[in-house]
Amino acid sequence: VPITFVDRVYGSSKLGGSEIVEYLKGLVYLFFAT
Question: What's the domain range around 22?
Answer without folding.
Answer: 3-33
